[in-house]
Write a structure and sequence with these properties.
Number of domains: 1
Distance between the termini: 27 Å
Oligomer: single chain
Largest sheet: 2 strands, antiparallel
Strand order of the largest sheet: 1-2
Order of helices and strands: HEEH
Shape: rod-shaped
Helix content: 55-70%
Number of strands: 2
Strand content: 5-15%
Amino acid sequence: MRQVFGVTLVIAGIAAFIAAERHKSLVLSPSLGTSFGGVAIHRGLSPTAYDLLRIGAWALVIVGGLLVVMGLIRYWRAQSPKP
């Protein structure tokens, strides 16, 4: 059961990485050669939200990976012959 939950967390972490990259913050300002009347236009997540999403994604991947490894070790111990 731990392996299934761990794999689910890893998949959720990978999905969070994909979402973070799709919504990466982009600032279009007049200094970059665009003319928007002197106003900067922001697209995507704010830098803080982007950083929090990436930190959360790493946490999901790490915790999920640890649960998978712990479950596999437990399974390996249960399958090994007892002396």
